[in-house]
Every structure is written in C-alpha cells, then in structure tokens.
Amino acid sequence: xxxxxxxxxxxxxxxxxxxxxxxxxxxxxxxxxxxxxxxxxxxxxxxxxxxxxxxxxxxxxxxxxxxxxxxxxxxxxxxxxxxxxxxxxxxxxxxxxxxxxxxxxxxxxxxxxxxxxxxxxxxxxxxxxxxxxxxxxxxxxxxxxxxxxx
Length: 150
What we know:
Order of helices and strands: HHHHH
Strand content: under 5%
Radius of gyration: 18 Å
Low-confidence stretches: 1-7
Mean pLDDT: 88
Largest sheet: none
CATH superfamily: 23S rRNA-intervening sequence
Helix content: over 70%
Oligomer: single chain
Number of helices: 5
C-alpha cells in the first residue's frame, strides 16, 4: 500500500543489512548489556530505593540503546551527533546513580559494580564511535539550534 511508504519492511535486504550491522557493533552490544544489568539491578531494589532508581535506570539504558540504533540507521552526521549527546547524558547519569546506589541504598552491590564496570567500558567504546561519526560526510541539514556545527 502506498500510504505505508514510511514503514520499514522487515523483508527488505537493506533493512536486514542495517539491522545486522547495528547488532554487531560493540557499542550497541555493550548498551544492550547495560540494559540487561540495569533491569536486573532494578528488580532487586525495594521500597524507596526502587521508586527512586528503577524507572530511571531502565529509561536511561533503553534510551542509550535506541539512540545508538537511531544514529547508526540515520546515515546523518547531525542526527548521529545529536543522538550521541543524548547517549552520553544518559550514560553519565547512570554512572552517577551507581554512586548513590552503592553508598545510600540496600541495592545488590554486585549488580551495582557490574553496571559501573559496563558503563566504564561503554565510555571507551563511545569515544571510538564518536571518532567514526566525525568521519561522516557533512549533511545537507543544519542544526537550527547551533550546537552541532561543522
């Protein structure tokens, strides 16, 4: 149907190629690890700790995964940089949250430590990914806010 032009066709070879490429990227795989760990950690929290941390941990981890996927699939330097900035913010928030979880809650410290290590490893993958983004050709789009300018 012509009205469905905006929907990716899962049987489309280009779509499948992009999905495989994204899934094989170390940064995407590490973000998925962080999401799994965040969910496990959140499930161990109780009471006020659960209320304060669980939703936000899961939200930040999920945003990291989806924004990486969106950046990779966009083919756009501008969108990739915008998404990278969002990913960085969420990763930094999660790293900060691990300090609070470690010192001010009854959270399972093993999960907290695993999450912290995953985020530190993610940071190194992130730096390499951003270098790759900077190699992309300039878009025809301009950042109307003036933040991402080449």
